[in-house]
Amino acid sequence: MKRIVFTAATTVAMALSATGGAVTVASAAVAPAPQTITGIVQTVVAEKNSGRDTTMFKILRSGADITHLAEGSLAGTPDGTQVTVTVAPAAGGDLTVLSTKIVSAAAVAAPTAVPAIHQVYVALVVPKGVAADPTITEATTRAMIAQVSSYWSSQTEGQVSFDTVRVIPTYVSAFGCLDANGLSNTDNFWVEAEKKMPEALGTNKHLVVIVPNAAYWDTGTCTYFGYGSVGQYAGMNNLVYATGLEQTVIAHELGHNLGLLHSASLRCEKNQDGTQVNTYTGTSWTGCDGMPYDDTFDVMGFGGFHLGEGSLNAVHIDEMGLLPYAIRKLPANSGVTSVRLAPLSTTTDYRALKVTDPTGANYYVEYRTNSGRDAAASLMPEQYAPSWGVRVLRDNPMFNYTGASSYELDASPTGNLNSDYNRVIPVGGTLTAASKKLTITVTSQDATGANVIISNGVVLPPGAPTAVGAIAGENSATVSWASPKSGEGITGYTVTAAPGGRTATTSGATFATVTGLTNGTSYTFTVTATNTAGTSAASAASTAVTPRSGKSFTAVSPRRVLDTRIGRGAVKAKVGTARSVTLTIPGLPSGTSAVALNVTVTNPTATSYLTVYPAGQSRPTASNLNFVKAQTIPNMVIAPVGAGNKVTFFNAGGTVDILADLAGYYAPGAGAGYTATAPSRVLDTREGLGVAKAKVGAAREVTLTIPGLPTGTSAVALNVTVTNPTATSYLTVYPAGLARPTASNLNFVKAQTIPNMVIARVGAGNTVTFFNAGGTVDILADLAGYYAAP
C-alpha cells in the first residue's frame, strides 16, 4: 500500500444548511436564477493519491453554510475577506461569480494558527457499499488523534494541541462514495456528521470524518484520500476528511485547518534556484519546475511510510506566527553575516534564518540532523529519504494560487528530476540565489550546529570558470571555457599557459588565443574570471595540447566512432570506477599523430572526470571532462594516438557511458594549418545575425555562410553556444550540402545555456549547418580560427 502523493481536485457545488440540512447540487438540466450570497472567503484543498497537480478552490462560509465556487473564482481575494457575490451555475455544478462586493477586508498580519487546545469531533463513517474496518474504533481513533496532537504540540512548543471531545461510533452512511452523476459524496458525509454532532460548529473546532482504507485503496471509488479547509475564522468549524488512521495524513489535513498549505520543492535540471514568475493564474519558475508535496521532511508534504514525520519546516514556523524567536531575520542588503544554526529539531532560539535578498525574495535556512523528529529520515523509503544538513527553502507569495507555500531548493542538482532528495549544501559549498545577489555558504557542521555565512547584496569575486578546452595551432592555442556558476558583473578573463606562463585576456568573451608558444611542447591552460570584487581561483587545467608546425590537419564530416551504450567501438557496457576502454579509430592514414574528438559523457552515477590519452602510454594527471552525477556534457579533445591509432578513455569514479565523434586528424601530407583570428560573432539567432531572427525548432536546421575566410579553408573553429532551449535536445554542426551525420556537438537540457568548442568542416562557399533535434533553441557561434591550405 502506497500513501505518498496528494493531488487537489474538487468539482462539487454544495450548500450546507445552518441546521445540517441536505446538500443542494446545481443541476445542468435546471438553470436557476442568479443568487446573491454573503460569506467569508476560504480556500479548500481536496487530496488524491495519484499525481502531483494541485487545484484549489474558494468557498464562501456563513456559519455552517458552505458554497463552493468554480475554479478560479475570487482567486485574487484574500482568505478571511467578507464578500457579497452574485453567482450562477457553471458546468459541473460549481458556481461562477458574476459580480463581487467586498463587505469587509481580511485581517492584516494575523497569525494563521490560533494558540489553543483545539476540539476535535470525529465521525467514523462507512460509505454505502464499502466494507467496514474493524481496526478503526473509538479507542484507536482517540489514540491516533493523541499522536497527532503530540506532533503539533511539539512543533508549536505547546501552543497548539488537539483534544478529542467526541467520537461517533462506526455507522454506515446513506451515501456511497459517488452520487448518481459520478461526483463525490464527501460533502454529504460531513452533512450527516453535522446532524449527529451540531456542537462541532464553532471557533477552534474541527469536524473530522474518517472512512475505511477500503473506500480508497480497495474499491477505488471514493474520490478523495484526504480533504481540509484552509485557515480558521471566528464562528467557523474546520472540515477534515481522511482515509484510515494515518498520523501524517490527519496531521496534514489539520495543518490545512491551521492555515498551512503544501511543502513543495523546486527541481532544476542544472540550477540551484529559479526566477519566480507570478501571474494571475499562478507561479512558474524560469528553468525549474515546482513539485508539490516534495519536501519529505515536512508534514505538509508527502505522508505515510514515515514521510512527513520530521520537524515543521522554517517557512511554516514563520507562517504560523507563534514562535517569533525561532526565526532570525536578515533584511535585504544586510551584507556579510556569520551565523551558527542549531538543529531545527531543537527548541533553541533563532534555530533558522529568514533572509530577504535585494529583489525582495525570502529564503529560509535551516539545519537538519539525525536527531529528534528529523531522525525519521532514517526510516523513510530510500528513494524518498532526504539528506541531513543545511537546507534552503523559499516562501511563495502566490501560495493562494498554487497550493504550495514553501519550496525546498536543491543545492547540488544532478539533472534527475524524479528521485534526487540529496538537496543540502555540503560543507564548503555555496547556494547562490537566482538574483545572484545572495549566497549561502556552509563552512562547517557537527551534531550541535552548522556555521553559515550569508552574503546579502554584496558583490563577491566570481567562481572559477569551468569546462576549459584547447585547440593547438602553429605556435599558438585557442582556449575556450564556460562562465562561472557564481559571481556577477564579470569584467574579464585571463588565460594562462603552463609551462611558460604566456597569457591572453578578454573583456567578456569566453575564448581566447594564446600566442608565442613553442611548437612540439605540450601545454595546459587555466582561466580566471574577474569582477569589481576581485579575481576567482584558477579553473581546472585543460587537457594538454601540442602546437605544431606545418599544414597537417584534415577535417572530416563528424562521425561517431565510440558509443558504449550500443557497443560501437568498444564493448556495450558503462565504464566503471578507475576503469578504461581503448578505441581503435578507423580510417586514419598512416602517420596520424593526433585526432580531434568531440567527447561526450552521459548517464554518470557519480561525480567524476574523464582522461583521454594515447593507448599504451602512461595515463597523465590532467582531465578532459569533469562532470557530476546524472550530467550529460561534451568537450572538444585533441588527443594524440598510440600505436595502431588507438586512444584510451579513463573514468575516475562511478559508472558512465562515453561517446566520441571524430572531427578530424593530424597527419603529414596534404592537410591544413590553423590560423587563430580575433574573436568575432558570426551567428546569433536572437538578433538575426548570420541567419533569420528566430529560434531553431525541433528537427530543424539553419545554414550559416561564414564571412572573411580565405580561399582553401577546409574547417573552422567555432565556440558554439545554445541558450533558451525549451526541451532536452542536442545540436549537430556539419558541412552544408552534405548528409547530416549521426553525431552531436552539444547536448543540453531545458533552460540550460552551454558552450562547446567545435571544429567543423565547411561546405561549399564556406557554409556550415546547425541542426537542433528537439524543442526550440537560440544558437550563437563565435569564430575563433580556421584551417586552410597554404
Name some characteristics of this structure.
790 residues; mainly beta; 11-stranded mixed sheet; 7-stranded mixed sheet; 5 helices; 47 strands; 6% helix; 41% strand
Notes on the structure:
The protein has 790 residues and is mainly β. The protein is 6% helix and 41% strand. It contains 5 helices and 47 strands. Strands 1, 2, 3, 4, 5, 6, 7, 8, 9, 10 and 11 form an 11-stranded mixed sheet that branches. A 7-stranded mixed sheet has the order 15-12-21-20-19-18-16. The protein has a 4-stranded antiparallel sheet with strand order 17-24-23-22, with no helix packed on it. A hairpin with a 5-residue loop joins strand 18 and strand 19. Helix 1 packs across helix 3 (247-257). The longest helix is centred in the first third of the chain and has 18 residues, at 138-155. The protein starts with 6 loop residues before the first strand and ends with a strand. Residues 1-29 have low confidence and may be disordered.
Write the layout of secondary structure elements.
Elements lengths: L6 E2 L26 E14 L7 E7 L2 E4 L13 E8 L5 E10 L11 E11 L11 H18 L4 E13 L13 H11 L8 E7 L14 E5 L6 E7 L3 H11 L4 E7 L7 E4 L2 E4 L2 E4 L22 H7 L6 E4 L4 E7 L10 E5 L5 E7 L20 E7 L3 H4 L1 E5 L21 E3 L5 E9 L2 E8 L9 E7 L3 E7 L9 E7 L4 E4 L4 E5 L8 E8 L2 E2 L17 E11 L15 E6 L9 E9 L5 E7 L10 E3 L5 E8 L5 E6 L5 E10 L6 E12 L15 E6 L7 E11 L5 E7 L10 E3 L5 E8 L5 E6 L5 E11 L2
Parallel strand pairs: 7-8, 7-9, 9-11, 12-21, 16-18
Antiparallel strand pairs: 1-2, 2-3, 2-5, 2-10, 3-4, 5-6, 10-11, 12-15, 13-14, 17-24, 18-19, 19-20, 20-21, 22-23, 23-24, 25-26, 26-29, 27-28, 27-30, 30-31, 32-39, 33-38, 34-37, 34-39, 35-36, 35-38, 40-47, 41-46, 42-45, 42-47, 43-44, 43-46
Helix pairs in contact: 1-3
